Amino acid sequence: NFVVGDAFLNIDKKADAFFLDPARDRAGMTKTRSFLNSRPDLLSILPQLLAVTPNVAVKISPAFAYEELKLLPEAPEVEIISEDNNCKVAMLWFGGFKTASRRATCFKKDSFFSLTDKAGVSAVVSPLKKYLYEPDKAISKAHLIDEVATKFSLTKIDYDLSFLTGDQLLVEPESNIFKKFIII
Q1: Rounded CA gap, 177 and 136, in Å?
Q2: How many CB atoms lie within 10 A of CB 79?
Q3: Can you point out the beta strands (E) in 34-149?
Q4: For residue range 72-128, what is the model confidence (pLDDT) as tens digits?
Q5: Residue 80, beta-bridge partner list
Q6: Percent helix, strand, coil in the chain (nearest 5)?
């Protein structure tokens, strides 16, 4: 059974899971990127929901600040979801919904690609090679550049940039998560 309604009014009910889509609008202003300004206030309601069930999912702005995650009662999985290289939404997954620390899910017209963090993965930095690759924005926002570089045998062009390089042209369909450039 699904109950649709105000989270504060349903906290006392037995539930297997909660899904929150907090309001981010502010009177006369643009939508807030910070989940600290959302309604309901996540810092107030999350501990109450997690006391009922560990299985909580929260939709937040994909432009959130990672520093804010430290304020949450526990560390969630952060999933950044893009459509055609545009970050559309971020999800915070708690309890049984959490399968990794970070995830990027990239939807394209006829396919999707998902990547999670791997402990200890570190890509090599090298000079530019024949091809330059710019990963999907969800991968960059999810801080998964080292993981995607390792998966596709690419190297980073700089420790602090998201651009990757390689001597081989990656072919479709899985490589459609990259903008590709040939270096002349």
Answers
A1: 5
A2: 24
A3: 56-60, 77-83, 86-93, 102-107, 112-116, 131-135
A4: 999 999 999 999 999 999 999 999 999 999 999 999 888 889 999 988 889 999 999
A5: 90, 104
A6: 25, 30, 45
φ/ψ of residue 166, rounded to 5: -165, 165
**Model pTM score:** 0.90
Are 65 and 85 within 8 A, CB to CB? no
Q: List C-alpha distances in Å: 105 to 9, 85, 93, 137, 178.
A: 32, 10, 14, 10, 13
| pLDDT tens readout for residues 158-176 | 999 999 999 999 987 778 8
Encode 43-64 in three state secondary structure. HHHHHHHHHHCCCEEEEECCCC
The token pair at 113 is 């690609």
Alpha helices, DSSP H only, in 35-166? 42-52, 137-141, 145-151
